[in-house]
Amino acid sequence: MPLLDIPWLSHQTSRADMTTEGNIPLEAIPPPPPPDYRKTQRDGPDSVHNHYHIGHERGPTPWYRRKWAFWSMVGLLVFFVVAGFIIMGVVLKVELGKKAAAASDGQLHPLVNASTSASPTLTDTPDDDVGEATTTTKFKKKPDSTSTPTTSENGATATPFTMLDSSQLASASVRVNDASRSRRLLIRQEDTNDLLVTEWTNGQTMHYRIRDRLSSLPPEAKPGTPLALQADDAGTLHLFYLSRSNILSYLYEPTTGEWEAGEVSNEHGSVRTSAYSSLSTAWHNGRRASRLLVVAFDDPSQQLQLAMSSSPAEHGSWYLADVTSVSRDSVPGQSNLPCYSLAGDWYSNTTATAARGAEAEAESWHKDDAGGNQRLLIAVAEGSEVHAWECGVDFWPPPDVQVQCKQVDEHFRDGAGKSLTLVPAPTQFAWLNLHDGQQGGSSTSTHQAFILLSLDGSGVVRENTVGGYVTRSAGAGFTARMGIKALSTTSEGIVFASSGKDVFVYSRHEGRWQPDVGTNVTV
To answer: What whole-number distance in Å separates Cα of residue 101 and Cα of residue 98?
Structure first.
């Protein structure tokens, strides 16, 4: 049986059905598919494959991967390295040349003034000059070939010195039989907070930082720290300042240029002051307490306190005593810091003794010379009013020690009975002790005299003379060339005044203050 063409039969059947149902126009019959129907792709555009092809053409190369950029950077690096070596070589050559020139020409160290101005030599003050607050310094010219006293052997530094604008001043003079230990010191603070010493001794002037003369680093001084300096009979200088944490810190200089670190402490540890405390120091001989070094400060509660010791360098040897409150109300345009200062010992004359006449005065003097009525005089400012306080110590050492303080404003009254009032209000006090080291003087008036210098932030320094047996009298004082921010004195009658960047020197001759051009403080 022959095979049937099934598609053909199906097609014929469909045509027969259409013929029977009616005539269908040819346009309604879809055309047959084209011959290449199965040979073309139905999806149109090229299909996208889910993988990458490595192209035959490269894209543009970034600029930093090009050869010219690489070699340019290498060239710049070589240029900077070579330039750095050249600059370093030039600087070293210049510095070595300066050092060689200084060594060959005998020039002074950079910290020492190279001028040939006068340099002081300290001498003892004769007894006949007790009544005059004149300087007892002789001057001689330094030779041009003077070598620097601040050598590397002594640990000095050649770093330039710039004084801190808020630096305080402290000064003292030492007069002992050994001329090599007689000296004068001025201490100030530089902008790195280091304490810098200017020391006159043996006809030479030295400038050095205290930290360079210590075997261990002391507590760092706070910016603008108050300074207090005092000398003893053996020639040792005692320096007090405040650390950054307001700890009362202590350094001392037994011999010229050699410093050691101590501490102010008792059984409770170190002594902490208020953040804005002042400092002042003096020696006191009590009834049964001799040679006490006393430091005045105000504690965090603004209570004026005295720290005292007969052995300052000994650990835990300090005793604290209260005096009075030193709180001040804020006054616009004025300093809000407490203002007080220790004058030192004087031989107090009570009102009853003064009323008994000359005979009682002579009797009191006899007792005073035996150490009976010595009192520590303190000036304390409350606004524009200045009050006098006296403190006495008995039964030393602790724990049986007794400290008595009382207010004695009668010592600060003038001949008309007026109290001491200073307008504008004082910001700092400084004392000149006219009987310092001369307690055997023949004039009782001079023997009792102190000069109180007061500073109010302007260029005017006011002067008042007070004493146990004399009425207060106002002096001429002096006016500086510019505003004064800090003040310090020595027992020679020399005053150092700071304007913030410069220090001026004044001395008192025949009752008048004059600039002291012979004392060179330039660094």
So the answer is: 5
Amino acid residing at 27: E
User: How far apart (Å, rounded) are the C-alpha atoms in residues 381 and 341?
Assistant: 9
In Å, how far are 118, 217, 265 from 272, measured between CA atoms?
Answer: 42, 20, 10
Reported as type and span, the H/E element at residue 301 is none
Of the candidates 209, 213, 188, 235, the residue with the CA atom closest to the CA atom of residue 502: 188
Task: Give the torsion through C-alpha atoms of 245, 267, 308, 265, to 10 deg.
Answer: -30
377-417 per-position pLDDT tens digit: 999 999 999 999 999 999 899 988 999 999 999 999 999 99
**pLDDT of the residue at 139:** 35
3 state DSSP class of 444: helix
Give residue for tokens 């053409």: 57
**Per-chain mean pLDDT for the chain:** 77
Closest CA to 278 of 250, 309, 262, 302: 302
| Token pair belonging to 486 | 């800090």
CB 270 within 8 A of CB 264: yes
Compute how many other C-beta atoms are within 10 angstroms of the C-beta atom of residue 232: 15
Task: Assign 364 to helix, strand or coil.
Answer: helix
Q: What does the pLDDT read at residue 517?
A: 82
Nearest to 257 by CA among 174, 169, 161: 174
Residue among 294, 272, 271, 264 at smallest CA distance from 393: 294
Asked if residue 339 lies in contact with residue 345, where contact means CB atoms within 8 angstroms, the answer is no
Inter-CA distances, 313 with 152, 190, 260, 516, Å: 28, 26, 9, 35
Low-confidence ranges of the chain (pLDDT < 70): 1-30, 33-59, 100-159, 327-336, 348-373, 435-448
What DSSP string runs through 335-390?
--S--EEEEEEEE---HHHHHH-HHHHHHHHHHHHTTSSEEEEEEEEETTEEEEEE
Contact 486, 460 (CB under 8 A): no
362-385 pLDDT tens trace: 444 334 444 446 899 999 999 999
**Tell me, what DSSP letter sits at residue 354?**
H
CA distance 173 to 440: 20
In the three-class reduction of DSSP (H, G, I as helix; E, B as strand; rest coil), residue 518 is classed as coil
Which residues are CB-neighbours of 123 under 8 A, at least 6 positions away?
A: 136, 137, 138, 175, 182
Give the pLDDT score at 440: 35
- How many Cβ atoms are within 10 Å of 328's Cβ, its own excluded? 17
Whether the CB-CB separation of 391 and 378 falls below 8 Å is answered with: yes
What pLDDT does 132 receive? 36
**pLDDT tens per residue, range 160-197:** 788 999 999 999 999 888 777 789 999 999 999 999 99
Q: Please tell me the predicted confidence (pLDDT) of residue 94.
A: 82
Q: Are 170 and 482 in contact (CB under 8 A)?
A: no
| DSSP string over 121-170 | EE-PPPGGGTT-----EEEEEPPTTPPPS--GGGT---S---B-TT---E
